[in-house]
Amino acid sequence: MDLGFDGGRMDGVVVDSANHPFAGADVVLVPDVARRSSPDQYRATESEADGHFILRGIPPGDYKLFAWQNIEPNAYLNDVYMTGFEPLGIPMTISSNAAGTTSVRLIPME
Questions:
Q1: Which string of b and e fits 11-34 if b means at least 16 CB within 10 Å?
Q2: Burial letters for 70-81: b for 16+ Cβ neighbours within 10 Å, e otherwise?
């Protein structure tokens, strides 16, 4: 897999509804609708014990950031599944060689 040299980086922390760091969340950076048919445009990881996460090698473009308490593997690749979660994502634009920091609210189990 070639990530290229212009990929961005995003790090941050997942917080729960009480604003406490949350370990073990599935953190996913979902590309804009035009690129969602290309799985290589997504980035995913799990938050660490302190809620921290890092996503590397992000292709430049527009995304939404999500953090789920529990999600079926690769469910975020399904447009129908994602429809209900769209309003919960944090919109962001990643540029070449950019690095950013953010916090993202946990989406609890249903």
A1: ebbbbeeeeebbeebbbbbbbeee
A2: ebeeeebeeeee
- Separation CA 106–CA 92 (nearest Å): 17
Q: What is the chain's pLDDT, residue by residue, as a tens digit (110 residues)?
A: 344 456 889 999 999 999 999 999 999 999 999 999 999 999 999 999 999 999 999 999 999 999 999 999 999 999 899 999 999 999 999 988 888 889 999 999 86
Q: What length is written for the chain?
A: 110
pTM over 0.85: yes
